[in-house]
Amino acid sequence: MLSSMVKEHQVRQQARKEEQEKRRKEAIQASSSLTHALVDHLNVGVAQAYLNQKRLDSEASQLEQNATNFQRQTSQWLTLVSSFTDSMKEVGHVQNWATTIEADMHTIATALEYAYKVEQQTGSGGGAAT
């Protein structure tokens, strides 16, 4: 009787150990599945963040290139406007010079005309008196 109780106890203990081992394996498998599911879920977010970062880097590079092109074009425009301004100043100087020459020529023409009239009056009046 004692020996059958011991054997019965050992059989139950062995059954419990097997059941416990089975449950331990199921728990390990379940935690492994949970871990994989969590990692997969996190990887989706990480992959999306990586793609977003890659797109941002590309757009930042394009923006930098556009800014460089804009700076170069602005520099060219400034050079062109400066050249145009200098040309306009030269035109203004030439116009001022031409106006001054025209006024001087008008003064000379007026003086010559006056001298001619005076000479005509003196020459005609002097020739009639002789």
TrEMBL record:
Residues 1-29 are annotated as: Disordered. Keywords: Coiled coil. Residues 1-27 have a biased composition (Basic and acidic residues). One of its GO terms (biological process) is endosomal transport. InterPro entries: BLOC1S1. Residues 46-73 form a coiled coil. One of its GO terms (cellular component) is BLOC-1 complex. Belongs to the BLOC1S1 family. This is Biogenesis of lysosome-related organelles complex 1 subunit 1. It comes from Petrolisthes cinctipes (Flat porcelain crab).
